[in-house]
Amino acid sequence: MLLNSTIDGFENIQHQDYYSLEKIINKLTTLYRLYGYHQISTPTFETYDLYVGEDSIPSDDLFKLVNHQGKVLVLKPDATLPVTRMAAMNHPNADEVIKFAYQTNIYRNFSSPEMIKKEITQIGIEYFGNDSPECDGEVIGLAILSLLENGVKDVHIDLGHVGFINYLFEELALSSFEREMLFQYIENKNIDDIACFLKPLDLSAEAKAIIIKLPSLYGEPKAVLKEMKTLCLNENMAGVVEKIAEIYCHLEVMGLASYVSFDLGFTNQMNYYTDINFKGYINNWGEPVISGGRYNNLSEKFGIPRPACGFAIDLMKVIDYMEQENLLPMDTQKNHVIFYGYDDKSAAYDLANNLRAKGEITEVFMIKSDWGYHVISIRENPLYKNAEIYFLSQGKLCIVENDQYISLEAITFESEVN
Asked: Which GO terms describe its molecular function (predicted)?
């Protein structure tokens, strides 16, 4: 007897959570459609070759298998790469503007012991062919609205830019090892470690002072922008300041700027980000529930140079929060359960079909025991917590209310279809 045949890292979604998940997906799909995003889907399996060289996803983190032709396949570990491939294949004109929305599952065989989940349910958007601050602002704005539209008010976006630090390190001609170490220290905001690491490097005092200030480039956007301007050593760094200032202005126009803070010291696991990157948090909830950014070079992998920006939401993390805060949409529609005697089968099915035609959930069962047993069985089953119970026997119909059997001429109701 298989009492426990589940696989670690994969979870079942129970009926109530599935109802909530579907409602949230429908609401978000409608939101994205209103902004012009077209719903698409990509395969569950991808070729292993698609991820060769993408060191942001270690090979050991991929679920691999070999098909009957000997080709190595993987369970899709990322949504952006396949969507970018689809855009390149179906829209070869690099000047086209393309807006896609998707809902999918991705699979990662995380080697880290604290990363337990192997299957992640995502919904997101990808905006191709537009390199403007308005595009970035729309994408970030929709990330915020995705949570607000579902009743989540404690939304917080950390907005960074991978270029600001990269342009600084290029100016200072730092080695790849020096960059990697400094990125780690900056992201962890280890100022003492940064100072110790910089001490033996052949850099000017001004350059070292600028690097030490990088971890403090977070917080209220206008204050951070003012500080950033004082640290620019070249035109590229100044261009970053101008770009994110324009994005922030666009978010002000959308009425969403208050949800955004700047953090120029964080990086993103996905190394294809070339410009802005951001993480979305529900305050006091720990890990980010949204991850996104701009990836202007990724489409070139498929032969079409095209800028792009997008984000993905971890839906089950959002549902966990909404459940804790009693924000989940609940299935409150009543269902009608009709028990019938053998000679009343035809009448019971006619009655059920009439109710279903009016949008009412209706189930029918033959009476096989005493009525009280059937009532108790239904009441004890959580799947029937909203059920109205009826008995049709010898041509007579009754409803169960407060353990009493009340005669009815017909079933009347106010429609409760959601």
From this structure: catalytic activity, acting on a protein; glycosyltransferase activity; histidine-tRNA ligase activity
